[in-house]
Amino acid sequence: MGEVVIKYKVTLDQPENEAPDYQGIADRISGFREVQTVEVKPLAFGMMFIEVQVVLGEGDGIVDGFEDRMRETDDLIGQIEALEMGRL
Known about the structure:
This protein is an alpha+beta fold. The protein is 23% helix and 48% strand.
């Protein structure tokens, strides 16, 4: 079984009257053993997103399981979008 590299764009829901803790959430995601890099990047109008690059094994449900684990790290995680995907 091979491995795949996936680059994700993770956006956060904006709570009223406060900015989300992008770096805190990025730090929690970076603790996953599959994660290679995590960066907080500007999006637009002061909003940010978290770019996450991971290496996962191929197989049924592995990618979905990882995305579910990312969603569980914080209630503010909104959309998780795969930007790039390739085999190693």
